[in-house]
Amino acid sequence: MNAKASKTHVTCIEPAYYEAITEAIRKEAVQILKDETVVGVVGYLPGRRKGTASPALVTTAEEAGKLIFSPACVNNLSVYLTKAKKGVLKKGKVGIVAKGCDMRALAGLITESQLQREELFIIGVVCPGVYGFGAERTGTLTEANIARKCRECSVHLPDGADVAAGTHTELADLTPEEAEEMARIEAMPQAERWAFWKEHFSRCIRCMACRQVCPFCYCEQCLCDKNRPQAVESSPRPAGNMAWHLVRAMHLAGRCGGCAECERVCPMDIPLNLLNRRMAKELKELYDFEAGLNPVEKGPLNQYKEDDDQSFIK
Amino acid sequence: MSRIGVFVCHCGENISRTVDVEQVAKAAGEIPGVAYSCDYKYMCSDPGQTLLKKAVAEHKLDGVLVAACSPRMHEKTFRKAAEAAGLNPYLCEMANIREHCSWVHEDRGMATAKAKDIVKLMVERVRKGKSLAPITVPVTKRALVIGGGIAGIQAALDIADAGHKVVLVERDPSIGGHMAQLSETFPTLDCSQCIMTPKMVDVANHPNITLFTYSEIEKVEGYIGNFQVTVKHKARSVDEKKCTGCGVCMTKCPKKKIPNEFDQGHGMRPAIYVPFPQAVPNTPVIDRENCTMFQSGKCGVCAKVCGPGAVDYEQKDTFTVEDVGAIVVATGFKLYTIDRKPEGSPIQGYGEFGYGTIPDIIDGMTFERLASASGPTGGKILRPSDGKEPKQVVFIQCVGSRAREKGISYCSKVCCMYTAKHTMLYHHKVHDGQAYVFFMDARTPGKGYDEFWRRAVEEEEAVYIRGMVSRMYQRGDKIVVMGSDIQVGTQVEIEADLVVLATAVQPQDGADLLAQKLGISYDKYNFYSEAHAKLKPVECATAGIYLAGACQGPKDIPDTVSQASAAAAKVMTLFAKDQLERDPVVAKVNEKYCVGCFACKKVCAYGAIEEKEIRDRQGNLVKKVAYVNPGVCGGCGTCQATCPSKSIELDGYTDEQIMAMIEAL
Amino acid sequence: MHAETKQHDFEPKIVAFVCTWCTYAGADLAGTSRMQYPSNVRVLKFPCTGRIDPVFILRAFQKGADGVLVSGCHPGDCHYMAGNFHARRRFAAFRALLSFVGVDLNRLQFSWVSAAEGGKWVDVVTELTERVRTMGPMPEFKELEHEEQWSTFAGASADKVLNSPELKEAYDSIG
């Protein structure tokens, strides 16, 4: 597959494009299961309702033949490789279907010793984008139903994957809504910014879905669940909510791969990815760090340079 | 419920003058969990400590807070007392209501309120404190001494004489330092080299001393008792093992007109050289920058004439790693040699003095070389420009020193005495000459010092003028010195043949870089900081590193030797035990919750964190977690702030303690 | 005899997180030099700025601090070699986050104060105290502490949250 050969800009992406990816994934998954390269493949199966997809671990060639890829494949599957009780890795090498944003998470997890590259067979998807939350699921991806994060995607190509499925295609002329929203908030007076976030965070019900879905929230005990000492109030009250989201943004700074799963699963529609994007922007500006597709030795907040900016220090 | 005792100290009147100590004690007594509180005039005194011990027993206290001075002052004192009373010393803390309160605030009401708050915070710290047991680590009984001047030599000899191995590292080709350059020494006027060179030879011959000259410290790792120091041995281009020190190479070297650093650039040396005839080791080095062979590839005379074949143009810098248990830093000083303000330096120059442009304006060390029998003039006082004997010499004290507006506010300590010595040496050698001295004050504390100074003034006819020099310039072959005499209240103008500046004593170049390698602190001038100005004058804040000589601040020879011997004694104290007890403020891993992301390992500057495998009974790998080597951990806590789940925790500064303190704000 | 300092309407609560080797010692030096500065600051000692977790700053604001100071050794002077370098990056990021959520960074000061800089300690503390004094109390986090989440329903934003007729009905029935 030569994904880099051409790049096409279109106004809509037809189901046929996704079907081609589906075929490629199935072929690869069946092959690696047959020749026992892997013990299982984490991918997507069709959901019960039409037009949906659900994450699945397939272990036979037969099941692998049912894997799909569609704009409904929103989940970041890397989370299934790390969270304590879902440790499929114990049994051997695992294949995983990964979009560019998911691959950034995989790279981060390798950087943080949670995964080893040798344990993985990455079936990379040349992903043109997925559905946004609540968008109309017509089978065709357009400017109208693409996810917000995909509008600014810079990782359509899964460089570093073992194989790549798909040919490079992008929707043309997407407005960077997230960047615009971030700029809008930054331009607000300080008190308004506070009011904006206070309103959002006050709605938080502390269901912890954001934590549950995040590939980087793999701690066995979250700081925010600790009670000796209780650093962050655990009941859903405004003070604790603010602290929780600030602590989470801080813990993800320099690690988050931008899959925006936290924002997708949030039942209260808190724009969580904005916080993560803001931190990523800061770390890019200060230390020229960007979460990439390949593992690095140390994240930006685990290293330093002697001449780092200190204009804010007296 | 805890049973904490709070003891509020008056510190004579130092605290009670601005803080209502009775009220502080009363308020402390009302904090839940405080079982006893009182105030006392001097807690650190013997009766004060007895009071504390008695209270611990009588009130069954399980934690103690002494509200007094800075813990940097008396934490050890009170922890010892608490220990004597049967408490774990780490359950005793201090609330700093003197340096951070009574001494910096005048308003009694506000100061008292602040003192109460400080006590309240610290009570929480005590409440959440844990008993800690000291960590023992083995001690490598081998010392490193950095710098081969009189300080380093004295320290090395003392440690070696006590039976311990010593590695002495010197940057220059020979040991000896500045003392080897001096002519005669105050206040006895005995010849510096006569007392110095035997010590140098002792170093070379001592079975316990390994001497590395022309070598520098590259890297320092480890901690007290267990340092690994990488030493860079600069290429001498002469094989030390083969060289017999016959000196033929030096006499045959065609390039002989290189200014000799040892003579402050006033004598000449060849490209292959020893800095001075009594150098130890007596092995030459090739100055590659000035050697024809290295610069153009043609010559090779020294190799041809060398009988044992010791000259090696191919020699490279080599490195060795030395395991040592203690380090003595004795890197000495340099003289202020600035004729104009260097770029980026806070120190202003003395452009108006013409130093560096008028050849007959020299510094004190150059005068030492002129007066030295082994110097470029054979001990005759002859001025650099034309070799004539100067008949009028002006000495100027405090050039650079005590000049806040110029950037150095400290006193260089040795100049008053050596200038007096210079006038005497001059008078002894040039009987018809006249010495003038411009001075601000004459500072002569020291045994026999004032008598010596008086002799210079009263018997040796030096004219002392109290006042400052404003300007100097060349007129014919004279230097016109313009200054003031504030005692007479008049302007003075002297036509001098030679001017000697007593320039300030400064730390060596690169002192800050070495400090950073060693992890020791230094002041704004780059002098190394002792752990305590009075009570720990030779220790660094970094355990296992000690200071000797002028690298810590300007010092004369007797002071330097005393400090060097003191540093040696400290090293011997450390070496007296096989095991060393370390402060147990180190990080520990909660293996149950550690998920092995190793962010802690990435930020640890000590390399104290290792990966540890957790296996089940069948030997299957369950997970990898972080493990802290308590002997290596420095106790900074960066790992804990970095750990997302706080599965690594610094004893003594736990999140629980800190959060409790914040809650009490 | 005690000089009476002039009374202010507002005495801000200033919390200083300092490292023990440089800034704590610098503050000690200010004491031994008998320098004077506002008494508002409460000092919490850490071994190193590297130990200081952003959570502590957050908690201090929540617990009523009107201004927070974080101070340690100058770059290159860290007793632990690199703790302050790590802290520098951590706090650069944390500042950006706080600013983004609308915290006025004038209330959060970072400084390097060495053991030799008693005067700088006085300057830094005085400047922060006086700046925060003119800014007035910090309302943001304190307000949050006293707010219940559901109280927002009674306010203007209730319509936003009760975005379905069923929810609205249920809420009204609590009444």
From TrEMBL, chain A:
<dbReference type="InterPro" id="IPR017896">
    <property type="entry name" value="4Fe4S_Fe-S-bd"/>
</dbReference>
<keyword id="KW-0411">Iron-sulfur</keyword>
<feature type="domain" description="4Fe-4S ferredoxin-type">
    <location>
        <begin position="194"/>
        <end position="216"/>
    </location>
</feature>
<keyword id="KW-0479">Metal-binding</keyword>
<dbReference type="InterPro" id="IPR017900">
    <property type="entry name" value="4Fe4S_Fe_S_CS"/>
</dbReference>
<feature type="domain" description="4Fe-4S ferredoxin-type">
    <location>
        <begin position="247"/>
        <end position="277"/>
    </location>
</feature>
<protein>
    <submittedName>
        <fullName>4Fe-4S dicluster domain-containing protein</fullName>
    </submittedName>
</protein>
<keyword id="KW-0408">Iron</keyword>
TrEMBL record, chain B:
<keyword id="KW-0560">Oxidoreductase</keyword>
<dbReference type="InterPro" id="IPR039650">
    <property type="entry name" value="HdrA-like"/>
</dbReference>
<protein>
    <submittedName>
        <fullName>CoB--CoM heterodisulfide reductase iron-sulfur subunit A family protein</fullName>
    </submittedName>
</protein>
<dbReference type="Pfam" id="PF12838">
    <property type="entry name" value="Fer4_7"/>
</dbReference>
<keyword id="KW-0408">Iron</keyword>
<keyword id="KW-0285">Flavoprotein</keyword>
<feature type="domain" description="4Fe-4S ferredoxin-type">
    <location>
        <begin position="282"/>
        <end position="316"/>
    </location>
</feature>
<keyword id="KW-0479">Metal-binding</keyword>
<dbReference type="Pfam" id="PF12831">
    <property type="entry name" value="FAD_oxidored"/>
</dbReference>
<dbReference type="Pfam" id="PF00037">
    <property type="entry name" value="Fer4"/>
</dbReference>
<feature type="domain" description="4Fe-4S ferredoxin-type">
    <location>
        <begin position="624"/>
        <end position="653"/>
    </location>
</feature>
<comment type="similarity">
    <text>Belongs to the HdrA family.</text>
</comment>
<feature type="domain" description="4Fe-4S ferredoxin-type">
    <location>
        <begin position="585"/>
        <end position="614"/>
    </location>
</feature>
<dbReference type="InterPro" id="IPR017896">
    <property type="entry name" value="4Fe4S_Fe-S-bd"/>
</dbReference>
<keyword id="KW-0411">Iron-sulfur</keyword>
From TrEMBL, chain C:
<protein>
    <submittedName>
        <fullName>Hydrogenase iron-sulfur subunit</fullName>
    </submittedName>
</protein>
<dbReference type="Pfam" id="PF02662">
    <property type="entry name" value="FlpD"/>
</dbReference>
<feature type="domain" description="F420-non-reducing hydrogenase iron-sulfur subunit D">
    <location>
        <begin position="14"/>
        <end position="136"/>
    </location>
</feature>
<keyword id="KW-0560">Oxidoreductase</keyword>
<dbReference type="InterPro" id="IPR003813">
    <property type="entry name" value="MvhD/FlpD"/>
</dbReference>
<keyword id="KW-0479">Metal-binding</keyword>
<keyword id="KW-0411">Iron-sulfur</keyword>
<keyword id="KW-0408">Iron</keyword>
